[in-house]
């Protein structure tokens, strides 16, 4: 006895045979691959959806993309697991210490460092949620946990922390741009209260698209046309797609808003900042009096001044360019160098992620390729590497951060030593 799904499938196949194959059996002989070039047609899209539902009735069916590469090459599971755990542990410790150091060290209480603390916070939670999700993905063969709303919730949180990091970097750049290129209006825009408001706005703005994206992320399986169809008990966590969807280009839109536009804005700001700092360095002069000076002290010996005002002798003053810029400019350049490094690493590490999403979307055979399957865990690792490297950059490039980290670790170690000493006495 034929089910309703089988009857509807047979009717759709007959219509397709009449439309594209002159009522011949070519469609049946060539298989579904012959129909892929006609996926723009509603009947072919309907057949793809019905075929996927019909295939689920067969025991042992595996939707496209669920046979993860780790099930074919099981030695990759422990390797990826160790990498994820190592990178995640380094990132968790580093970002947690960054937040503590900034708020416990008064010399680090600045607008820039408040944004860096917010960046460390978003990176910390991104690692917590993202690494956990990826480890489940690896060991469960891309099958999500049997928890209500698991795919939507994890996607919302990962998107939230990712967008918060991007917006924080954008505002960091804008703050430095305002401070260096327009210093007189900087204080009015970026005072301490305003910075805290900006940080709150960052999370609110990041939450809105995150909820929308999370709502679209469900347990899905892919039909032969390449569309992700929502499923109830099989499939992987991914973005649902359909030809009649209002939001037809989600990956391209997200890439444009969260990657391309911020990148161009940041490049423009840093270009203006570097030009301004260079102009400031070139315009720095000193006014040095010329006289006989001792080479060991550098103190000028002024000529004798007689009592006769007509015969007074004044030193000759020469205007010369200062070889070394003032310390304030050197400090500004060091901060800019650190922020440029953090930003560059962020975008370099996130570029493969966006490229991977586009490759999977536009290459329908990608799910059958071993190398293509490796892209997902590799791009995930790069995201967490970006979040883990920031505290290392702060230590390498900022003396204040380095001293703050050393003091915090010393205090922690001293506290533990005193605690063990007290326990030993007891």
UniProtKB/TrEMBL annotation:
Belongs to the G-protein coupled receptor 1 family. InterPro entries: GPCR_Rhodpsn, GPCR_Rhodpsn_7TM. SUPFAM superfamilies: Family A G protein-coupled receptor-like. GO terms for cellular component: plasma membrane. This is G_PROTEIN_RECEP_F1_2 domain-containing protein. The chain crosses the membrane at residues 79-103, 115-135, 147-174, 195-217, 253-271, 334-354, 374-397. One of its GO terms (molecular function) is G protein-coupled receptor activity. Keywords: G-protein coupled receptor, Membrane, Receptor, Transducer, Transmembrane, Transmembrane helix. PROSITE patterns: G_PROTEIN_RECEP_F1_1, G_PROTEIN_RECEP_F1_2.
């Amino acid at each position: 006895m034929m089910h309703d799904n089988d009857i509807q499938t047979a009717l759709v196949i007959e219509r397709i045979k009449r439309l594209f194959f002159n009522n011949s059996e070519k469609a049946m002989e060539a298989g579904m691959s012959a129909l892929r070039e006609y996926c723009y047609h509603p009947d072919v899209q309907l057949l793809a959806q019905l075929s996927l539902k019909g295939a689920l009735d067969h025991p042992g069916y595996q939707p496209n993309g669920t046979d993860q590469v780790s099930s074919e090459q099981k030695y990759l599971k422990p390797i990826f697991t160790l990498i994820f755990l190592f990178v995640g542990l380094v990132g968790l410790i580093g970002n947690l210490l960054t937040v503590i150091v900034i708020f416990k060290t008064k010399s680090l209480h600045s607008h820039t460092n408040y944004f860096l603390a917010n960046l460390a916070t978003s990176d910390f939670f991104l690692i917590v949620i993202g690494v956990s999700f990826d480890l489940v993905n690896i060991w469960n063969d891309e099958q999500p946990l049997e928890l209500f709303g698991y795919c939507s919730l994890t996607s919302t949180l990962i998107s939230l922390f990712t967008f918060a990091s991007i917006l924080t970097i954008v505002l960091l750049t804008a703050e430095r741009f305002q401070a260096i290129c327009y210093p007189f209006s900087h204080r009015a825009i970026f005072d301490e209260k305003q910075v805290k408001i900006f940080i709150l706005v960052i999370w609110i703005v990041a939450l809105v698209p995150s909820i929308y994206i999370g709502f679209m992320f469900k347990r899905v399986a892919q039909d032969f046309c390449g569309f992700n169809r929502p499923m109830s008990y099989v499939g992987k966590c991914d973005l649902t797609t359909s030809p009649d969807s209002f939001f037809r280009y989600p990956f391209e839109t997200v890439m444009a808003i969260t990657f391309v536009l911020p990148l161009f804005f940041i490049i423009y700001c840093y270009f203006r900042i570097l030009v301004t700092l260079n102009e400031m360095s070139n315009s720095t002069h000193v006014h040095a009096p010329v006289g006989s000076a001792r080479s060991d002290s550098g103190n000028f010996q002024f000529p004798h001044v007689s009592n006769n005002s007509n015969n007074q002798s004044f030193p000759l003053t020469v205007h010369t360019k200062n070889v070394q810029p003032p310390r304030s400019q050197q400090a500004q350049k060091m901060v800019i160098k650190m922020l440029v490094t953090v930003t560059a690493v962020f975008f370099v590490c996130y570029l493969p992620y966006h490229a991977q999403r586009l490759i999977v979307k536009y290459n329908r055979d990608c799910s059958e390729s071993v190398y293509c399957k490796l892209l997902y865990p590799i791009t995930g690792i790069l995201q967490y590497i970006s979040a883990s490297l920031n505290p290392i950059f702060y230590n390498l490039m900022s003396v204040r951060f380095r001293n703050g980290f050393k003091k915090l670790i010393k205090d922690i170690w001293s506290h533990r030593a005193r605690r063990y000493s007290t326990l030993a006495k007891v």
